[in-house]
Amino acid sequence: MKINGTRKSNLKQTVEELSGVRIDSCLKCMKCTSGCSVAKETKMHPSELIGLLKLGAGDEILKSDLVWMCLSCEICYGRCPMKINTASLIDALRKLAVERGTTTRKGNAPLFNKAFLGTVKQYGRSYDLQMIMHYKFGSGSLMQDTEKFPTMLRKGKMALLPPYGAKKTVVKRIFDTSPGGKGKIK
Ligand code: SF4
Ligand code: SF4
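^ thats the input. predicted complex w/ iron/sulfur cluster below
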């Protein structure tokens, strides 16, 4: 990714505050990239992303495909000799991308993210049916994959009623105390 070297940005500091990650401790060993679940599919790799943040990259990095394709599997975190939690760092970038309106128009990952987290916040667990409705109305793809719905219902893969039994107060506290969260889902 091309980085405008003259552009001043507080992105690194903001991301560090949101994620609790110390970017400068990266050794550029690339162990995160060599184990990353999506590195074969993305143009940007985890070690590259961290390296660019370290060099003072600006908001253009928020458009990186890795920001929305990362699976939060934390394999990178497990492999990192410096215990850099790249997944947490990418979560912070996602939040900033939405806040600053720099999400790419390609794909509906931000919409899906919002739909998923919205149900987790409301019910304490994901409620797939509501999440899908939210996503479908938001994306306009109302009829896509609907033929699978009866099979999923029959096989018990999709519940009609919202989940119950979750400790909603605990989940709410997680949202309220998450970096930059305050319970807001954008
Ligand atoms: S594994 Fe850790 S130290 Fe090595 S490049 Fe990745 S983030 Fe940096
Ligand atoms: S958490 Fe994201 S960046 Fe890290 S290994 Fe998994 S997919 Fe790759």
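Residues 1-8 have pLDDT under 50 and may be disordered.
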